[in-house]
Design brief:
single chain, mainly alpha, 4 helices, 87% helix, 0% strand
Length: 114
Amino acid sequence: MRRLGQFMAVAAGLILVIGSAAAAFLDGAGRQAVAWSGAAALAVQGAAFALAQSLRGQHLTVMWGVGSLVRFGALVLYAVLVAILWRATLTPALLSFAGFLFVTMLVEPVFLKR
């Protein structure tokens, strides 16, 4: 449980920094889409990390692969939901969501290996 908390703190920090940098170039609707994407990405990352951590006895690549499949499914679901709900802000929402997932996924093995 401690690893999950540490990972979530690092992921939240990364999302906050990247989201703030991206929001500087967007209008109000784009900023809102980035904020919602950050919150959704943090929730997905928490679930994916917890799932990967539950597979602790497996090889690191298996744990990371399962987490990657969860993230990909979440990205597809998020794309469908955003396309239906926010037609005007589709691009910033999807790019920021995918970017948040990718960057935070890169630090995940550090917390899974311990």
